[in-house]
Design goal:
- The chain has 11 helices and 6 strands.
- Strands 1-2-3-4-5-6 form a 6-stranded mixed beta sheet, sandwiched between helices.
- It is of the alpha/beta class.
- α4 packs parallel to α6.
Length: about 290
Amino acid sequence: MFGFGGRSFAPENDIPDLAGKVIFVTGARTPSKGEAAVEEIRKAAPSVNITYLNLDLCSFKSISAAAQEFRLRSTRLDILMNNAGIMATPLAETEEGYESQFGTNHMGHALLVKELLPTLLSTAQEKGSDVRIVNLTSEGHNLAPRPQGVILDMAELKEYGPWARYGQSKLANILYTKELAKQYPSITSVAVHPGLILTDLYRPYQEDSMILRYGLKILGPLLMADVSTGALNQLWAAVGTRSEVISGTYYTPIGKGSSGSNWAQKSDLARELWDWTEKELSSKGY
């Protein structure tokens, strides 16, 4: 399969003892899928204390409520893995009026980080702590709108196609991570590309295109990784040796630091996005 190399990482051997650590992972698109995932994990690891929180990244109200529920349940947070996302979806808006991919993949997770920062920072002050934020991005960030890379005028952004809008959301994940690392140095914040993974994200396109449907069926297993392999880079970023996981870095599989696109290297663009995001969240009361 293409795109996998770098470091050797075998979860069964390389994940350290996580006893006492609290981990928050976004991912399930529906409560039924979330509950199903929880049950699957409980069967595989009965001793793990795991809970599903209802969280809709398209809704600031839902995100804030989920964060509040988490804070009632736990006073610490060691790893925040912002794993959820949507890809090349039809034009739509979030509850707050953001283009749906930018709103879900960037704005929703940015609010979640902001809501959980007090707990993350408090945990980071504890002796022996190693607090991390892992933001899932993609090499698809190279598809961001040209020549700007990031368009903060939602009306203008909506004039672009689904893949350009997806590219912007993934570029935003990298830029936001870089500035997050600068703003909060006590937390290790990284952005990771999982690789080319055969997941349900491609299902809508398979339904619309016979060529893609049969192409993925035949070539997918040869060219794309399965979900377990696709999780390796983010697992490494979450639990790999502290000296090897460098805050503010964009990693491709597995653990390979990458500069990303020219846009991804622009510190001024990262700061512009950060300031705009903070202003937007503040204007919505967060």
